Amino acid sequence: MTAEISTRQEVLLLSDREVKDKTSSKTIMGVGEKKTYTLSYFNVRGRAEPIRMLFALAEVDYTDKRISHVDWPALKSATPFGQLPVLEVSGDNMKAPLTLSQTNSILRYLAREFGLDGRTSSDKVKVDMIVETMRDSINPITEIFNETDENKRNEVLFKYSEDLLPRFLNYLTENLSSEWFLDQVSLADAVIYVAFDNISMFLPDFLDRKSYWKLREWRSRFESHPKICEWLSIRPTTAY
Ligand SMILES: N[C@@H](CCC(=O)N[C@@H](CS)C(=O)NCC(=O)O)C(=O)O
Q: Domain GST C-terminal, which positions (predicted)?
């Protein structure tokens, strides 16, 4: 399928579509093309959950493939970096199917495809900041999760709750727009929601602090978003 587009800016925004002639006729391939998405991850929320939330927000169908730990060793070498999540994308008009690895790359790709990455350049970089801060905040959580020595575990948890976490939550409190993180729902909201889920797992009362009332309101609003509300009601119940 082809389509005529009018400005250079639009060409740049139309991600992943084959541009035939960027300078003159600006005919692009693949507009309106139906893509097929398969997301592979373990049967937990983990790193895949913000990706699943993007599909929910965009109301785009995908296969939510859940790999068992028993099957994983046989599948590992077929993935780009021996890790999950992996997103496979194919479509009639794509030159070749894509096999994508790295959570944040997948998140950014889908957010761009679905128009959930912010409207302006300033909004896009704010979304990026949230995505990167989330990565930093997941690392200590993973460490806490895997640490068997209780003293070491408490040490990491204490440092996390006294330093990185308050900074992150204060930044959010100061930067939330009236309804969402930006003036429209975006990848940032999905990522923040999953971060709060993780925080609540280890520090169940942390967000109850008086100064975080704005964040609690935001969380309830996000949970009430019709597409998120539906996803939360149908998603498989898993340990984390
Ligand atoms: N930087 C990667 C890390 C991915 C990662 O650590 N995946 C874990 C699951 S959360 C995994 O695949 N573990 C199994 C293995 O390494 O064999 C990303 O963000 O996607």
A: 120-240
